[in-house]
Amino acid sequence: MGAKAYSWQALRWFAATASAALATFLMVWLGANSTTAGMVFLVLVVWWAAQTGIVLSIYIATLCAICFDFYFLPPVRTFRIEGPQAWVAMVSFALSCVVVSRLSERARQQARQAEQRQADVERLYALSQEMMLFEDAERLLHDLPGAIGRIFALQGVVLYVSDYDRFYSSTSEVAASVKAHMQAVTLGMSPTVSLFGGYQTAALMLGLKPVGALSWQPDTLSHEVAAAVRAQVSIAVARSIAMETTARIEAAREGERLRTALIDSLTHELRTPLTSIRAAATSLLETQGLDEAGRLEMARIIDEEAARLDMLVGESVEMAEIDANVVQVKMSQQHPRALLDQAVEESRKILAAHKVTIAVDGADDSGQGKPAWFDPHLLGRVLRHLLENVAGHTPQGSRVTLSSRRTDDRLEFCVEDNGPGIDARDMPLIFEKFYRGKQSASMRKGSGMGLAITRAILAAHGGGIEVSNIPGSGARFRFWVPLIEKEPSRQ
Asked: Cα 24 to the chain's mean position, in Å?
């Protein structure tokens, strides 16, 4: 690249010399007078001054002045100048060349400065646009140094945010001394703008309050651009802090709303079975002459409502464990068929009036299929919640099909029924806490937590769940976990 630039520069000097020589030859050959020659030389100097730098323009002006004196001012073909007219012509020509050269150089500098300012404005605008795209506070601060380095062609950019006491860098590693210097600049223990460790470091101010520091290398940003970048970064830091504060407030508000909803839901749900149990117990204690069938009916009511009460308490405890992030995945090698059989066996009471079938894709002669590593306790809970949901929302005699299959990286399970399906209005909210579908009023009531629990359990297991309606009739719940065929500790 240096050799090419040198060759191009040499070519321009040769072209300037050749143009002056050619102009001189043509005017001598045509017999031009001194006035015509002066005008031609002046035009030549103006053109070269507009195209090149100050050094080359002074060179061509000097060369033209020499040719003008030697060939066109009397006595010609000598460097002597005789008479006031010749001196005036020579001095006027020389001054005109110098003034034109300086004016052209100044115009070029102003044009370069205008282009630089335009480029700076465009880069600052691009930076502001990038900062506006982020809606996550942590992501904004994490990606901001890289965006600054990319837009302003910097090798390294480091951002320090004092509120978080955290560093964000566009490079993989930053020297500890640079980090310490940035903290000192933020605390006012070092100059607000200083060069240290190859990085130019400046404090980030929001009003009179320091919110951090910004360092960059190399130090190629002008003072004005650096100040504008610092101002934008300070605003971005303040926006990030505000976003995080708002998120915390919203989370606290949502937590309070959920706690209130949980208390209201549990109060309502627990009161219903308790009322039934008390009424049945009162009938047993106070009713005289109650026959055996009546006593058995009262005992059955107490048993059913106590079981429902136990289920509600269990689901509440389960949801509390999930919210507290205490769910642990304990892998063991299991057959998917055994998991499905166990879930059906544990749900036989609620599925007594339904027709249940099990299908395992790729099963061998024993019907088991290949084993895989998963948590049978957690997936068993998922299946039981889904079966309870199916039993509570499908009429008696409905068909329920449980199946499992393998894909390249998943172990999938399906629970299907041929009931009325799920209302389209319920689809987006069906896995939310305490949500009950539009059809629940005529079906068996639940707590509204079962499907939310299944989604949370599967998320802890690294899987997911989705629901869809089967064309014709019925609903399909499909969930999956990662397919692990070797013991996790040995992979």
From this structure: 67
pTM of the model: 0.46
**Residue from 276, 273, 254 nearest 434 by CA:** 254
Omega into 145 within 30° of 0, i.e. cis?
Answer: no
Residue with tokens 């607000």: 192
Q: Which residues contact 334 (CB under 8 A, 6 or more apart)?
A: 371, 372, 373, 374, 376
Kindly provide the residue ranges of all beta strands, DSSP E only, lying in 162-237, ordered along the sequence. 166-169, 193-196, 199-206, 209-217
Q: Give one word for 301, left, alpha or beta, with left for phi > 0 and alpha for psi -120 to 50.
A: alpha
For the stretch 83-121, pLDDT in tens is: 676 677 667 767 777 777 777 777 777 777 788 788 778
Distance, CA of 36 to CA of 42 (rounded, Å): 10
What DSSP designation does 336 have?
Answer: H
Domains of the chain are 2-116 (no CATH), 134-247 (3.30.450.40), 248-323 (1.10.287.130), 332-490 (3.30.565.10)
CA atoms of 11 and 24, how far apart (whole Å): 20
Q: For 183-231, write each residue's pLDDT tens digit.
A: 888 887 666 566 767 788 888 888 778 888 888 888 778 888 888 888 8
